[in-house]
Amino acid sequence: MSKQNSPKVDLSNQQNSSFYNSYIEGKEFYYLIGIILSICFIVFNDFIFLKKIYLFKDIGSDSLNAVWPYMVQAVDSISSGNFLSWSFNFGMGQNASSYVFYDPFNVFLFIIGKEDMIYFIAFREILKILLASMFFYKYLKLLNFNNYIGLIGAVIYGFTGYMILGGSGWYIFSFEAFNMAFLLWSFEQFFQKNKWYWLPIPIFLICVSRPFNLWMFGVFIGIYMILRIYQTQNKLNYRSIGIMIAKILGLVTLGIGLSGPFFFEHLQVMIDSPRVSGPDSYFSVLSSAPMFATPDKMQFGTEIMRFFSSDILGSGLKFKGWQNFMEAPMFYVGLISLLLFPQVFQFLDKRVKRISIIILLIWMLPIVFPYFRQAFSLFSGDYYRAYSFFVALIILVFALMAFNFMFTQKTINLKLLIITLVSLLILVNYPFFKDKSTVDSSLLISVILFLITYSFLIYNIVVKKDNKTYMIVLLLCLVCELSYFSWCTVNRRDHVTTKDLSKKIGYNDYSVEAVNYIKQIDQSFY
Q1: C-alpha pair distances (Å), 508 with each of 57, 365, 500
Q2: 53 phi, psi to nearest 5 deg
Q3: Which end of the chain is more exposed for a tag (fewer CB within 10 A), N or C?
Q4: Do the beta carbons of residue 59 and residue 499 sit within 8 Å?
């Protein structure tokens, strides 16, 4: 993985660091739980105290208009014992099982019951964030990351743009982020320790939720596996690689088999979807576009700016970038990641460096040429979605690798850090948009201040012998950044309020009485 062994630095003998040694070192996993819950309390405060309901009326209105009715239907189906059967509550009729576990975390809400589960949707999202961060921390520890770096990485993972923005209306994206952390951890358990029995579980969860993700997650894990093989083997043994791939395919088949009827019902729904085979299909239009056409300035500017914050171009209906708030790229993965990831290549040997650069280019190429991003979605739409997440994840992993090398080897390329900082400051201030009000000035100032502060702290953490104070300050800065940026994503929106539930509006309007009246006077099937 590196040009030389990465010696562990004995932090316990450093001076003036009794607070860190006594209260933090060795307890990072427990601090992770506390930090995640603290940030969640700041971000979801109004939802925890039931001032608001975690359903959205703005661009995230799918949560109110589609997801919530599906959840209610699922509870009705389960309570009647018919969740594996046909239901006429779906349009002209449809198999009810395909949506019951669309987000498997809904099971916790189903237990609460139809009348009360609406108040606990935000708690479900908090649970996803917490568990995803915990699995990602355990995954980093399997890669022998330092505890402190693991803590930093896991906290960032819990509040990526994909987790917070994707989970604020489309919910399923936050489940996908959880499942990716689980999948990476399970893969490493198999890859390093031959513990095969974990791997079918995330495959099962993909299949009962969205089988299409088998393709996208499979591409990511396949490329990741190549990187891990290059990191761990001095000489490629194609026979052992072939055996490993065969075992993985067998475990994937087992996971698909465990998902049983849910998997095939999802496939049927996908096949019947007008986006796949009907008149609304995008396939012919997108696949016939020029392969090397570049995005316009609005789209490219949106791509760049959303690396810095999900809300830097506005929140909800006030978003002024490409497309809309939810469908624009979700590249945000913590500002410190942008500063750190270019440093990783100085620590890699020539063979691993070469494959790492190729992998980075594979994931970055679709930013410049949208055709490849659309191909990744099999031309089902002009989407970023999961592609956004994989780009962010690659940057995060490379950044953490770099920080781990820098931290343990006490080495930093100061010139590269300065160049990276200046480049980021130029990009975030570049006039991509004609209207200057497109960029949120308060968030822009915050981004600039955080980037400069992180650069100062990173340098001192690496070069100073007594670096514990800088480590604590960096962690506090990270908490401030993630809390503020995530708060903007979640709270600068149009929500359903608790008071709305008692008014004769929405699903509680007079159509309920109308339907009951029709049923009284007309007992026929239709």
Answers
A1: 15, 48, 9
A2: -105, 140
A3: C
A4: no
